[in-house]
């Protein structure tokens, strides 16, 4: 299911691979992400242009994704309803409880978190991040790197997101939207 969902999302252009570099097979990843940002900084420096760069890292990335965000992403990207129902059933079964020497809690339904190690988790995480990135993408124009060279104001590798803006007010707006 993971490979079919990934293929569906990429073939239909639902994941912007010029922004999100992680979790998508055959898309250059971490090294390209870091290199592009480094090149943008060097270019702005040599052209004596203003460039605001903010690196963000989502704490407990997989564990902090609300299941409702996954449901929203599945609907937003027109994933077939039978797949949505299957994934809903899967996530509604996430439960845990705590024990010590003298006490065990009742089972608690989890409403947040994607299972590490599950083959579908990376693409579901990318979908959730894409919802967040899309909500913020119009907050700023492309960063001006001089010589008619521009870079999108957002770059992401899984949960590592970088804001790159030429104007401080756009940087602030983008950060607030994220």
UniProtKB/TrEMBL annotation:
Residues covered by the Reverse transcriptase domain: 1-178
Tell me which domain of life the UniProt entry assigns to the organism this sequence originates from.
Eukaryota
Q: Where is the SWIRM domain?
A: 1-26
Pfam families assigned to the protein according to its UniProt record, in alphabetical order: RVT_1
Query: What name does UniProt use for this protein?
Result: Reverse transcriptase domain-containing protein
Q: Which organism is it from?
A: Elysia crispata (lettuce slug)
């Amino acid at each position: 299911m993971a490979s079919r969902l990934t293929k569906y999302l990429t073939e239909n252009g639902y994941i912007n691979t010029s922004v999100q570099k992680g979790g998508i097979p055959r898309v250059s990843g971490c090294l390209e992400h870091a290199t592009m940002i480094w090149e943008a900084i060097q270019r702005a420096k040599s052209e004596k242009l203003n460039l605001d760069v903010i690196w963000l890292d989502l704490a407990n990335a997989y564990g902090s994704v609300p299941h409702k965000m996954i449901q929203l992403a599945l609907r937003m990207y027109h994933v077939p309803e039978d797949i949505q129902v299957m994934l809903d059933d899967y996530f509604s079964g996430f439960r845990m409880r705590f024990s010590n020497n003298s006490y065990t809690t009742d089972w608690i339904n989890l409403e947040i978190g994607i299972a590490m190690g599950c083959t579908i988790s990376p693409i579901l995480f990318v979908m959730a991040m894409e919802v967040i990135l899309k909500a913020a993408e119009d907050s700023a124009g492309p960063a001006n790197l001089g010589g008619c060279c521009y870079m999108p104001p957002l770059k992401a590798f899984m949960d590592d997101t970088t804001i790159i803006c030429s104007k401080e007010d756009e940087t602030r707006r983008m950060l607030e939207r994220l």
